[in-house]
Amino acid sequence: QTKTGIALLYDEVSENAYDIRLKLTKEVLTIQKQDVVCVSGSDHSANHRTVTLRRQPVGGLGLSIKGGAEHKVPVVISKIFKDQAADQTGMLFIGDAIIQVNGINVESATHEEVVHLLRNAGDEVTITVQYLREAPSFLKLPLGSPGPSSDHSSGASSPLFDSGLHLNGNSTNTAPSSPSSPIANEPKYEKRWLDTLSVPLSMARISRYKTGTDKLRSNAFEVLALDGVSTGILQFYTAQESADWLRAISTNISDLTLQNMKMANKCCSPSDQVIHMGWVNERLEGTDSSQLYKFKFLALKGSSFYIFSTPPVSTLDWVRAEKIYNLCEVLFKIHKLWLADDCWLQANLYLGIHQDFDLEDQRPYCFSVMVGHGKSHYFNVELGSELAVWEKSFQRAIFLEVQRTGSKTYMCSWQGDTLCFTVDFALGFTCFDSKTKNVLWRFKFSQLKGSSDDGKTRVKLLFQNLDTKQIETKELEFQDLTAVLHCIHSFIAAKVASVDPVFIDSQSIARKYMYSN
């Protein structure tokens, strides 16, 4: 997706916002700021321009100004009136900060002082200007060309209103003066959008939240490159504009991630392919409120679920993961969606295995991944579409791993005997003596009618005998009960998906609600 548009760059320190232009390509987001450049002549810096204006009997200097030291901004040209003195020079632009008037430095002058100086400077006024690239948005400077001469401002001069210097000043000369026209060999200037920062989108991430908080920025977000370079806070005029840009940038990041995955998969065996990867925010449990969430990079590859602090770039990087879990032994669970009517949907996808979470945070699009020993990771993504992709990807990665593995065997015990418990994709459940290998019992997946556990090590599995139709209870004790329960769930879900894929799709809460919206 390619896109261009006007936005604001918000400075959290000064609390000012500046006009910028965004340029989005397939691989890069570029921030442009307006500046005045020399397009012909000897002056290539265009940093400071000194211009002589001849005050005209009608129209005066032909410009208006805003700002002043009392508002911690320089005095800037806010209007230039077409075909009048300032416009005729071809060297002055809306957004130019006035540095000197007739050799007097006015960088620290108030609005009224500059107005007084300009109005009493005589018929010929020499001003030195420099284009203010970061003009605060409260000055409301137009981005366009000189306006119509009828566009006058009136009333008392104020830093937030234009003081018109198109009116006659204290001129002693009543005869028409020659126009302030550019001389042939003088340099020519133009106001242009110039690239000031380019952020590569490969492995980039987006944040809509104020740093270290759950406070959502209003119509604003930040894009951070892989190397940590930030766009700064991009602010938009409407919620629709913000949403459109967020989607467009996210789409391009996703497309590049897909390319990276394809390249990585060329170096991997068919059983070790990357199914999905991307940035999320992980909630840090038991920490103070200043560090609620931290960026993490997740990947589903081969038989494993990886959690990284930075994305894996080379083949060797895969061993640097903070955590690695076997896909058969994890459980994906959606917690929050944000619906179109701003209601929360608290969703428990998988009944029978419950885990209590404090869901009081304000972030939508949350999911958790439960792992062994009763532990879990709680994540948040920026868009509902991302949540749907993670849900689908976890399902696919787990189902593929179950089919590849075929079976998993766990050591267990009951009444002092050491036993082996096998979950097999084709055969179902088998329990046998670890020493003699004698099969003690075997049941199909369809015969499992229920289960209960003590939340620690013991589980009761309720099977229906096909002949007698009676329920038989089998009790077992495992070192890591959670991992075994997750494995049973993974195998049964994969079995159902192989028989009835439509049923699995119908259970997708994220896709059902996100795509209907």
From TrEMBL:
It is found in: Cytoplasm, Cytoskeleton. The keyword Cytoplasm applies. Coiled coil: none annotated. Residues 50-133 form the PDZ domain. PROSITE patterns: PDZ. Belongs to the syntrophin family. This is SNTG2 protein. It comes from Cochlearius cochlearius.
